Amino acid sequence: MLKWFNGILQFKWLDNLVKLLVENVFGVSMASRLGSSIHFFIYDTIKIIILLGIMIFAISYIRSYFPPEKTKKKLEKFSGITGNIMASLLGIVTPFCSCSSVPLFIGFVEAGIPLGVTFSFLITSPIVNEAAFAILLASFGWKIAITYVLTGVVVGVFGGILIGSLKLEKEVEEYVYEIKMGESEIEELTRKQRIDFAIQNVKDIIKRIWIYLIIGIGIGALIHGWAPAPLLAKYAGPQNPLAVIVAVVFAIPLYSNALGTIPIAEALILKGVGIGTALSFMMATTALSLPEMILLRKVIKPKLIAIFVGITGVAIVLVGYMFNAIAHLLI
């Protein structure tokens, strides 16, 4: 039974169907570069869309219980390390985009939530979301997907703890402490409303990201079929001690949708690039994107932004090395 379930989850049936399509309908050999690329594009597109719909619906239903106002109220009840842990865990089921960072930050500070706890939430929330988890599950399997989620939470917890220990409250713009956002009524939804919310969220997210997915899968297909595996393995493989650091440094100033980079990461890994190198690049573009830094500059000063980038960047590098070290246990 477990073997059958794993086969369904790993999409072996889809892999075989697409192979038949490529060879018998398109008349292209799977042994050729073109056949390999076509298979990668069709297979990844279908499996990602299927899992994306399922995961977005499930997590969106859970998320309907955690609107921003309720999230703020829950975080108000915790302090210390417990607060950091709870903030990171809430970040999983409340994956607000970077455009929500400023109002959330103001709301948390205004509510008296410690700065370190606030950053635990802001670090984890963009890194770990239902769409990224669905694509990781489809591309790499449940071991890597779950390990990614756990490490995302760890990065958020320890990043927040370190920022909190530095007592950087004075690095928040003064006007933030003076804002009184007031209390808004928390609407309790019925089961039907929660289901409608989840369905609408599936439609909205797929509508927003499908172009990134197609571009990312297309680039991944080209890499899968045509990129020189020995060269990539030599310079970006797990044996290169600088590969993870270089990947994160290059990722920090970039803006790239994580959902589009996962298929690229999958293709690179298949070509011999270290798992940790590929995932740390993806994690850095998500947590440390340039647009988010620009938005956060509205409420925090450059010194705190630099510390935030430095601490989170180092944590992501360590996660990358960890993934490379335990890759044999995850594949």
From TrEMBL:
Matching InterPro entries, A to Z? DUF318, UPF0718_permease
Which Pfam families did the record assign? ArsP_1
UniProt subcellular location: Cell membrane
Superkingdom to which the source organism belongs = Bacteria
Q: Which UniProt keywords apply?
A: Cell membrane, Membrane, Transmembrane, Transmembrane helix
Q: Where does the protein principally reside?
A: membrane
Q: Where are the transmembrane segments?
A: 48-66, 87-109, 115-138, 145-166, 209-229, 241-262, 268-290, 302-323
Q: Which family does it belong to?
A: Belongs to the UPF0718 family.
This one is known as Permease
